[in-house]
From TrEMBL:
<dbReference type="InterPro" id="IPR004474">
    <property type="entry name" value="LytR_CpsA_psr"/>
</dbReference>
<comment type="similarity">
    <text>Belongs to the LytR/CpsA/Psr (LCP) family.</text>
</comment>
<feature type="domain" description="Cell envelope-related transcriptional attenuator">
    <location>
        <begin position="97"/>
        <end position="251"/>
    </location>
</feature>
<feature type="transmembrane region" description="Helical">
    <location>
        <begin position="21"/>
        <end position="39"/>
    </location>
</feature>
<keyword id="KW-0472">Membrane</keyword>
<keyword id="KW-0812">Transmembrane</keyword>
<dbReference type="InterPro" id="IPR050922">
    <property type="entry name" value="LytR/CpsA/Psr_CW_biosynth"/>
</dbReference>
<protein>
    <submittedName>
        <fullName>LCP family protein</fullName>
    </submittedName>
</protein>
<keyword id="KW-1133">Transmembrane helix</keyword>
<dbReference type="Pfam" id="PF03816">
    <property type="entry name" value="LytR_cpsA_psr"/>
</dbReference>
Length: 339
């Protein structure tokens, strides 16, 4: 067969056609690979969820339950320490968590609940070696979970673990830990928080006059949220009530700021960074903030129990009512297994 010769213009046309064919081929192959990965991942994720559904069935108050996969849970930790956050070289028992609160978002119902956890709750808490390795588990105040670590990620992860196990192994997507010096910043970012003074602060901060409705200055907010000794009846329950009142008043102020300015999350993250430990990026915090803005606040639940003073060390102990613990867990985190 005689060899065919092409003119320059014909060669350019052929080259363009060939390039087009190659490009289409590459796109089709790439799409095929991507779709294949997506399908495989969907199969894998579905398989994992099915396996978890079968293996994670727990009995709560005698009822078989499985995790509610529509729920996302985040833990807020308020640490009893001050100053810029630094890593401890050894666990010395300081840096307990004075405040523990779960934010529970139901992404299907577009609702969220808050669940405060009494810092004196007696539950299983792990002790960790300096390298983070497990040493032992003891029944003690859940506040000590944060103290049994490096004051940074290890302490937070140990607290997450204790809270999760206390609530039948729930999944916690993220945590934010703030120490006491963050209270003033939180209050300042809100422009002051309005509260009613219902306790006697005369020995702690005389400017907080019982019966008055005031907008807390940053210094007043520190006393109102943190102080326990010589305030009211001096119990942690009394302080938790004040903390609830503060958070209830703070939430709508932050919500309004987020709705008015999406950059508020960046301001929050940057201003608190020296006093905060978190496993969440600013983008992840923004996503959670958006979920809150677009969800209905269903209020606060609580686990009932009894308070006592330990005979051996004189510390407060809160013993959960098992029925109440189960009821709260089933309402927030689990679904009954259908027979």
């Amino acid at each position: 067969m005689a060899k065919k010769y092409y003119s320059r213009s014909e060669k350019e046309k052929l080259a363009k056609k060939l390039a087009t064919v190659v490009a289409v081929f590459v796109i089709v192959c790439t799409a095929t690979v991507v779709i294949g990965h997506i399908v495989d991942n969907q199969k894998m994720n579905t398989g994992q969820k099915d396996a978890a559904t079968e293996s994670d069935i727990v009995k709560i108050n005698g009822v078989e339950c499985k995790p509610n996969w529509d729920v996302q849970t985040y833990l807020f930790i308020g640490e009893d320490a001050r100053g810029v956050k630094t890593r401890k070289t050894e666990s010395d028992g300081t840096g307990q968590s004075d405040v523990l609160e779960l934010l529970v978002i139901d992404t299907k119902k577009n609702t969220y609940h808050k669940l405060p956890i009494n810092r004196d709750t007696i539950t299983d808490v792990k002790s960790l070696d300096e390298d983070g390795s497990y040493l032992a588990t003891t029944k003690t105040q859940i506040a000590l979970a944060h103290a049994k670590g490096d004051g940074m990620e290890l302490s937070c992860e140990n607290t997450v673990d204790a809270v999760s196990n206390m609530l039948y192994g729930i999944r916690i997507e993220g945590y934010i830990s703030l120490n006491m010096d963050s209270i003033k910043i939180l209050n300042h970012l809100a422009g002051g928080v309005p509260v009613t003074i219902e306790d006697d602060f005369s020995q702690s901060d005389p400017s907080l006059v019982m019966g008055q409705n005031i907008t807390l200055t940053d210094d007043q907010a520190m006393h109102y949220v943190h102080d326990r000794m010589n305030v009211g009846d001096g119990t942690n329950e009394c302080r938790m009530r004040r903390q609830k009142a503060y958070v209830d008043a703070l939430f709508p102020l932050y919500k309004a700021k987020l709705q008015a300015d999406s950059g508020f999350v960046n301001e929050f993250y940057n201003d608190l960074s020296d006093y905060m430990v978190t496993d969440m990026s600013v983008g992840e915090m923004g996503n959670v903030a958006n979920m809150i803005i677009n969800s209905e606040d269903k209020g606060e639940l609580s686990i009932k129990g009894t308070n006592a003073i330990a005979e051996d060390d004189g510390f407060n102990e809160f013993t959960m009512d098992e029925t109440s613990r189960g009821e709260v867990a089933m309402e927030l985190f689990f679904n009954k297994v259908e027979k």
